[in-house]
Specification:
The chain is of the alpha+beta class and about 300 residues long. The protein folds into two domains: about 90 residues, Phosphorylase Kinase, domain 1, CATH 3.30.200; about 190 residues, Aminoglycoside 3'-phosphotransferase, Chain: A, domain 2. It has nine helices and ten strands. The strands form three sheets. It has a five-stranded antiparallel β-sheet with strand order 1-2-3-5-4, with helices on both faces. A three-stranded antiparallel β-sheet has the order 6-8-9, covered by helices on one side. Helix 4 packs antiparallel against helix 5 and helix 5 crosses helix 8. The radius of gyration is 20 Å and the shape is globular.
Length: about 300
């Protein structure tokens, strides 16, 4: 019987990856294994030789994404304007590691959170074009938003109770009255469209850049079909001014969809801030800024 690491993340290291590869894919056992520079939360990723990566879920809740991505990424890849992770193999639990895992092709590029991007407007357009292309992919039989996507693509009502708890916890420390108004507006802007593909985590760490241009999008673990408003969070969290306007025009976001996007970013920022406001001033400052951006954007819409 396979034992589960005590905290869901302990025990994942390069030595484990070497053992898994040797046991299940001996043809690659001589290749070097090294952690990638930017470490993820849902998964730990290791470089395997020069051309591959190994990706291991860090907890049981992230494990279903392995089969989802392995099935759908090859089908989506040809319809998208930039590269997505090539699926090479699927690993099984073993060597004390309890979850399925995957081997992917290496994609060149630097995460957007560290890359130099000289033309922010054009970059915003490129991100918007990727989102639009993803939405146009055939959604027939696709995984409907739900637990596997951490309810990205589903109704914001799923996070209503949690958001209101965060508002109560942050009373007097952020403008909770205005934040509550943004949240109510997001809930009221119900989505009634046909389900379309969404990525679920369009964030700087999942956008790869080379020579200042978007070259790849990674980590489809929260992807599915449903309401794509969750992907528009990038327009509020990453871009400002002309770049934000270009992003919104590219994705053709109507006021209701944009209101739901504000709701998604507000929920996450309130949740993170309520957990770090007294312990991590750097992370708290980041999420205060995001909340301020959401409130200001909502104010301009009235």
């Amino acid at each position: 019987m396979v034992s589960t690491p005590p905290d869901g993340r302990a025990g994942i290291d390069a030595a484990l990856v070497k053992r898994l590869i040797a046991a299940q894919f001996p043809q690659w056992s001589a290749l070097d294994v090294a952690p990638v520079e930017v470490e993820g939360w849902d998964n730990r990723t290791y470089r395997l030789g020069d051309d591959m990566t190994v990706r291991l879920p860090t907890a049981a809740g992230y494990a279903p994404a392995v089969d989802k991505e392995n099935h759908w990424l090859p089908l989506l890849a040809s319809q998208l304007p930039v590269a997505v992770p090539p699926v090479l193999a699927k690993g099984a639990p073993g060597e004390g590691y309890p979850y399925p895992w995957s081997v992917r092709g290496w994609l060149d590029g630097e995460a957007a959170l560290r890359a130099r991007i000289d033309d922010r407007v054009q970059f915003a357009v490129s991100v918007g074009e990727f989102i639009g292309a993803l939405q146009r992919c055939d959604a027939t039989g696709g995984p409907l938003a739900g637990e596997h996507s951490w309810y990205r693509g589903a109704s914001l009502l799923h996070y209503d109770e949690e958001t209101r708890r965060c508002l109560a916890a942050l009373a007097g420390r952020v403008d909770t009255a205005e934040a509550a108004a943004v949240w109510e507006a997001a809930l009221a802007a119900e989505w009634h469209g046909e389900p379309v593909w969404f990525h679920g985590d369009i964030a700087p760490g999942n956008l790869l850049v080379a020579d200042g241009k978007l070259t790849a999008v990674i980590d489809f673990g929260t992807s599915g079909v449903g309401d794509p408003a969750c992907d528009l969070v990038a327009g509020l969290g990453m871009f400002e001014g002309e770049a934000r306007a270009a992003f919104r025009a590219t994705v053709r976001a109507d006021p209701a969809m944009w209101a739901r996007a504000r709701g998604w970013l507000l929920w996450k920022s309130l949740l993170v801030l309520s957990g770090c406001i007294d312990t991590d001033p750097v992370e708290a400052a980041v999420n205060r800024r995001l909340i301020d951006e959401v409130l200001a954007d909502h104010g301009r819409s009235r």
